[in-house]
Design a protein that fits this description.
Length: 227
């Protein structure tokens, strides 16, 4: 019997931000969590979850330094310089995924994402969803701002969106080619803007994004507990 061919999966790990809200001198993705740079943890999770190739998009002056973070996977990781906005970094990364038919986009700022989430997103794309996002429930109460007062909203109608997000490669290329100047916070929203349906799969608390100093403290405690 001829084995079914499995589509090649490329992951773009966006790591070109500076981490202004974290307020450190190093770019955020280079900061170590329990001795391992955030971006190295993110890349490891992509491979463990089923990616065949990883494109790391790094701050321009850090490309060579970042390349030294992945000695074990040197031949399967490309490190390239990123752009001004997150979506510019993703677009630049997309030009380096070769013939991969499935592409994941993952924030280096989510270094503790469990590999089973990566696998779950890939499988949903393999099963036919053109765009897939991992989501978790909103735990705090929410209010909408109305001029100088606020109104409660039903939090059960909201979800928090994580990465990796998974796409048919051609769908994401088309979305990026059509966005113009508008800024988007994630890639699924860009796909939705060209009428692509976005499917959700359950995410995981460990895929939280490191944004502020307290997030780094939490990540350090979790990573030390695991090693
Ligand atoms: N990112 C990127 N290129 C940019 C901006 C952001 O690759 N021009 C990446 C970041 O490196 C990060 C992810 O997008 O992994 C999510 O962005 P965010 O958490 O906002 O990170 P920073 O932009 O680095 O942080 P800040 O907004 O606090 O400066
Ligand atoms: Mg940012």
């Amino acid at each position: 019997m001829i084995p079914a061919t499995r589509e090649e999966v490329a992951a773009i790990v966006v790591a070109a931000g500076s981490g202004v809200r974290l307020g450190r001198e190093l770019p955020k993705a280079a900061i170590e969590i329990a001795g391992v740079p955030m971006v190295a943890r993110a890349v490891q999770a992509m491979f463990a979850g089923g990616a065949d190739l990883v494109v790391v998009v790094a701050p321009e002056v850090w490309v060579e330094r970042f390349a030294q973070f992945f000695p074990t996977y040197a031949d399967r990781v490309k490190v390239i310089p990123g752009g001004l906005m997150r979506q510019d970094s993703v677009r630049i990364g997309l030009a380096h995924i070769g013939s991969a038919e499935i592409v994941l986009v993952h924030d280096a700022a989510r270094p503790l994402v469990p590999p089973f989430i990566v696998d779950r997103v890939i499988e949903a794309v393999r099963d036919g969803a053109p765009a897939v996002i991992p989501v978790v429930p909103q735990v705090d109460s929410l209010r909408r701002i109305r001029r100088n007062w606020t109104v409660a909203v039903d939090r059960s109608t909201f979800l928090r969106v994580q990465t990796p997000q998974g796409f048919e490669a051609d769908v994401l290329r088309t979305a990026h080619a059509n966005v113009g100047d508008k800024e988007f916070t994630d890639d699924a929203t860009m796909c939705e803007a060209i009428d692509i349906p976005v499917m959700t799969v359950p995410g995981d608390g460990l895929a939280f994004k490191i944004t502020e100093p307290m997030d780094l403290v939490l990540a350090e405690v979790i990573a030390r507990g695991e090693s």
